[in-house]
Specification:
Blueprint (H helix, E strand, L loop, with lengths): L4 H5 L3 E5 L7 H15 L3 E6 L5 H8 L3 E2 L4 H14 L4 E4 L2 H14 L3 E5 L9 H6 L2 E4 L2 H10 L7 E3 L20 E6 L6 H18 L3 E6 L5 H15 L4 E5 L4 H5 L4 E4 L1 H9 L3 E6 L2 E5 L5 H6 L14 H8 L1
Parallel strand pairs: 1-2, 1-4, 2-3, 4-5, 5-6, 6-7, 8-9, 8-11, 9-10, 11-12
Antiparallel strand pairs: 12-13
Length: 324
Amino acid sequence: MERPEAEQARAMRILFVTRNARLGGGITYLQTLLPALQERGHHCELMTRGGLGLAGLQRIVGKTWWLSPIAGQAAAQTRKIIRHKSIDLVNTLTRRCAQHAMPACRQTQTPLVMSVLNCTSLDRYLSAAEYAQAIVVLSEQGRDYFAGNYPQFADKLRASRLLLDRSVFRPCAREDRTAVKITYMGRLSRTKGEHALVLLETVGQLLGAIPNLEVTVVGAGSRLRRARRRAAQINKEAQRPVVQVVGATLHPEQFYQQADIVVGAAYTALGALACHCTVVGLGFAGLFGAVTPDNIDEAIAASFGDTSAHWSRVDSSSLADQIL
């Protein structure tokens, strides 16, 4: 059945620009957003670099454009795509991408929507923020943060939400109920990766209360090797495989569906709740703590620890208390 003429007239050609296709919240966001836009008649193009999530994105949009890390080359490529593909709107998913795409948007008079996925400084990207027609953040606290720190952009701020495909993230029958399973999921970077290492330091405390404990760490980054070394030490001391560090995954829902407790923030927490796990929020801002029916609205506003937290300093004792 044809779409109504008025709806067809609103269809746009949108160029999305993101730094790379490494697995994380930004890629999960695109994997849900792009099909929804296409269903509404919009045409989506994507400029990015490589990563484990690239093949999945290409299944959605087809051919992708390579994003140069050099500002001038990125701007020239953006300008070429805008003209060649008759782009109506450019949407960037990082601050640097916005800064690189902005000259091409200005020259071609193409609107720019600047998405900012975390509460972070815009000081080096003010010209992009000034040109942007809208700045999209993914939480109410994110909007408050940017409105407070950059009041000149308050009228441009739009609070969106994390998008989740409930046909994928849904509860599933557990394969094994003899163990209590805790899963940490997130980038093992110099920021969030340190939280995973703190979790591993809680294992000794937790085993006293949960003898049948199993811990899984899912993610990749600069702290992956350290996490694997610490897991090997724990398993040797316990004389059994208590901890496994599995690296990156294309299917996080499979780990949520077999977990009792999931530790993480943002998409990790949201996906885990959709799979009926208990969640302990832990993110960029620190430890939010156990998510309950009484504090769920606060947890969502805080992005489960990514934008605000009850404990900014994360130590093994406070984390073990929240898990227990």
